[in-house]
């Protein structure tokens, strides 16, 4: 059995074994142990991963559903992007468990089991090389998340959980139809219904642009809901606000990236021509998301909602980078996935720590806490600045590269996307700094807050690694960018090649202003 | 030669390492110091080491032939993706070394001053941590060999500025001022980012040498014009020009040493550095240069007008800084890049001296900043008085003090390379400068004591604070000699700026023989400055109260003291509408009602439809039997008919 299978199986078995552990505390320690083992396995996988090679590595393939006419296999493998996302998943799981150690006492062993199931499914999503398998993992995510929000959530948890479930499921069904369609198309060529990524890639290349368009949108809408891309974002604030802290951390930290991962892997990978054709629409939505998400975040009075809307902005940068299809944009998108996972994950986790102490999400109930909890104020400031995109911290690298990608893009072929995207930089400072000021600075306005305790050693243990990564990626991003460089560059070059071989259709018109 | 260059390359990183270490040590272990003074000493020594190294490098450079003076140091790759290919790498040349010396030199003095000024403050360690970080970031800004690393410094100093303006964060107004500074600066940074995006498209690189080289061979074009406009937008933020100057006066909420270091001597001159560094780009954009000249002279005048009747000593100096930055940009705008840099240098000396002097006054007056409650401090604070007075003469443009030479050079270039109107407006500004600075001097140090001297008699500051004052006053007196009288600076900077300057001069055709005007104009500007001082002497030397100003000046006084209501205008025209639209339209209508309404609406519709459909499921066998029969009939008729 390969490392990737092991990575999926370990948390899966952990989840099953938790059935036998009734004591909450033991369950927590057990789950943390399993998460740590998974993290170690992912590190081992990383040492096996060769950054100098294009394409999928650590591949495993077993025939699964196979007959004369059907060939579906259990097929795993990672390229650089997937490798980074797997590492992010296993890392954040450990951190999130430590960071939210005491946040709830309600049926702990069930919660832990669901979290481990979630981890297995997320890793499965990033590693699947067969779309049937991918789809199973993709939908499997919904089940644990639904229960995590629905059982451990806040007051309107049922509404949010149902909305989350149905909304994202509705999108996925479109994708299922598209997968089957593609499989049928593939069978016309090879005579066998197959869902293997490589075969479908070949099959889709033979499709007319018109058919590609339908399939592109079936995938794109499903992913856009997950990202979420404007205007498919409204499930997110509800889900985040009601979810327990660990749910929010995983949701923001990893789950949203499944959408953008899907866009790069499947939308760009399977339908290059349609992607180029629709790049302007997707980028327009992305830019709207950047500005709109920031403006709406600015007026929120609930801190979790504010952070949730900030995700809409950040993910907008990501989608803009993806559909610029340049090396800068795509690499920026990959690193932005990691960054958003770290910074927004940390913001949610830190706010959860405060919520455990104060039990209010309203900004107006806070103020002046820097005086009472100075350590908390410093850590929150770092997470906030990383989210603002301050150079020297991680957030900047991704944001900057996606923007530069947008400027460079011959597919988008206009500076407007880049220029409007840059305005997000101003707005990010507005809503985050204002939030920070009302949260941490000024006089102490709420007497209840006077006795709030500063960060404990356990909480610091969870936060320090996050900060280390924020600075590391900020100063030495190449250590991370190099991992995905080969495969992303190849993908970008292939896309731009697609564009250039059909010059009549995708004519490159340099912005007239360039020519003097 | 190569050996020596190699040695310098090894040495240069330590200019940054020293304050970085100071920052890390104070930041990580500051909480554990038994004696808080340690933090101050670590901070000060770190920057002093940095200055000594920089001075050593400078002296080496002096002895090198001109073409070898640019030294590249590459530490490591920072971001290398596609065309974005930048390193943490430095370019030390004639331009950056001047800024490095100012940053570390004045920085060290102000650190020393702060050890006295901040004594007893509960945030003493935090203060030095931030201050060291500022030095690190400011050094990145000027040492970078590419725009992106400069941008890192650019944003980094913005962060430090934010942290230090809001240093006493318990007060709401300080937090507000800090936030305002950061956000307004970010508007400028937006321009910087866009400029970098366009550069990458046009030149395929962000390195100074590639961009400037590319521009030279490309010649004038509209994209370069757009790039420079966007860069200048960045400068209006960081260097407080119209329309983004509004953050700087509020920034005085920070401790006074911060105002001296960040908001007078170093950070706010970043914009001038950027333009001087990119002088070829700007020289190729005549429209942008024209815009810079207009914005600069307008800023210089408006800020001077606001400074005229401010009663808060730091506010006077703040608006004066905005105004002086306007002069620097005026120099740049008319293509006299060297003159702009010269004024950065002299301004750093006298304005830092003035701010530190005001800090000494505020310190002695137990945190009183209102000049109406001062007066007669001359006898209590003799050192402060004398240094303040010398710096005042320098900024007023009285020969032979530093400010005279640099300001005069800018005015002369404004006349000879710009237009007589620019000169005249500049001279008007110089008149106001002399007036408001003399007014501040008189109100603070002369006349009757308007405070209670018996309970808390003000006393002169101790050595850690007056030594920097004396050094800076000395530089304010002598600093001008570096420039026009000896021509040393001009010659030194020539390799950097002469290309740009020559492009500008070449594009201005028909520059007839203007030299004959130089001396008369110079004499006029000196007279103007003296008149300004005399006027202030007449009205303010023996002033008892300030109440009469308002009556005699009427409407203008009101406009001036209320800063022309610019903040109110921005608030009403931009901030409130944006917030209002976002809250009551985008969020409450678009997001909740429309976007989410469609989602929830479709759920409700499904619910409704199924409530009808449910009625078919009656559970009564007879009903189902009827339906089966109807179904058979329908199917049969379909088959039979078609």
Number of helices of chain B: 26
Helix amount of chain B, in percent? Answer: over 70%
Rg of chain B is: 31 Å
Give the N-terminus to C-terminus distance of chain B in angstroms. 100 Å
Overall geometric form of chain A = globular
Low-confidence sequence ranges of chain A: 503-516
Number of helices of chain A: 20
CA-CA gap between termini of chain A: 61 Å
**Low-confidence sequence ranges of chain B:** none
Q: Would you count the extended β strands of chain B for me? A: 2
What are the secondary-structure elements of chain B, in order, as H or E?
Answer: HHHEEHHHHHHHHHHHHHHHHHHHHHHH
DSSP strand (E) fraction of chain B? Answer: under 5%
Determine the structural class of chain B based on helices, strands and strand pairing: mainly alpha
* Largest pleated sheet of chain B: 2 strands, antiparallel
Strand arrangement, major sheet of chain A: 1-2-3
What sort of overall outline of chain B do the alpha carbons produce when their principal axes are compared?
globular
Architecture overview:
- The complex is a heterodimer of chains A (516) and B (642).
- With 516 residues, chain A is mainly alpha-helical.
- Chain A is built from 20 helices and three strands.
- Chain A has a three-stranded mixed β-sheet with strand order 1-2-3.
- In chain A, strand 1 and strand 2 form a beta hairpin.
- In chain A, helix 7 (157-190) crosses helix 10.
- The longest helix of chain A is centred in the middle third of the chain and has 34 residues, at 157-190.
- The model of chain A is unreliable at 503-516 (pLDDT under 50).
- Chain B has 642 residues and is mainly alpha-helical.
- Helices cover 74% and strands 3% of the residues of chain B.
- Chain B has a two-stranded antiparallel ribbon.
- The longest helix of chain B has 48 residues, at 566-613.
- The model of chain B has no long low-confidence stretch (mean pLDDT 90).
- The chains are: A mainly alpha (516), B mainly alpha (642).
- At the A-B interface, helix 7, helix 12, helix 14, helix 17 and helix 18 of A face strand 1, helix 6, helix 7, helix 9 and helix 25 of B.
